[in-house]
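Key result, reporting period 2: structure in, sequence out.
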């Protein structure tokens, strides 16, 4: 009986060692630049913590798009524990005056919003674990 318990315990231990990161790991190592908001097109550039470097998509105002370390996602995407990328997930949507962000996981903030300059085609801001800053 003891041997069976030891074998089961060893199997459970080995299975848990296969994951490279814990679901409890909080990501702080990502930096995404919002480099352009023109008409309904939003352009992003990830400087750190992503599998992508540039991302561009078209969305009408008030239609959120989920963004994570892999690019465009869905707001209910599960945590990926097979790599070392950060576990952030947030919705980004265009508003009448700028951008609104809603964190789903992996950030210190829950909601952020900022205005874009009136009459310009760009809206340069940086989003990271702690919030947003303008460039």
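The corresponding designed sequence is given below.
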């Amino acid at each position: 009986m003891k041997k069976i318990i030891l074998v089961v315990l060893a199997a459970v231990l080995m299975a848990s060692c296969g994951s490279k990161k814990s679901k409890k790991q909080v990501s702080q190592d990502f930096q995404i630049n919002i480099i352009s908001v023109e008409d309904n097109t939003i352009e992003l550039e990830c400087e750190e913590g992503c599998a992508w470097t540039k991302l561009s998509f078209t969305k009408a105002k008030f239609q959120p798009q989920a963004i994570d370390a892999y690019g465009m996602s869905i707001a209910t995407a599960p945590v990926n524990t097979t790599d070392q990328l950060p576990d952030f997930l947030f919705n980004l949507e265009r508003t009448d005056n700028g951008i609104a962000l809603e964190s789903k996981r992996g950030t210190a903030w829950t909601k952020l919003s900022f205005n874009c300059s009136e009459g310009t085609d760009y809206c340069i801001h940086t989003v990271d674990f702690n919030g947003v800053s303008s460039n």
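The first strand starts at residue 31 and ends at 38. Strands lie at 31-38, 41-48, 54-58, 65-68, 71-73, 89-94, 98-105, 111-115, 125-128, 131-134. This case is discussed further under Risks and Mitigation.
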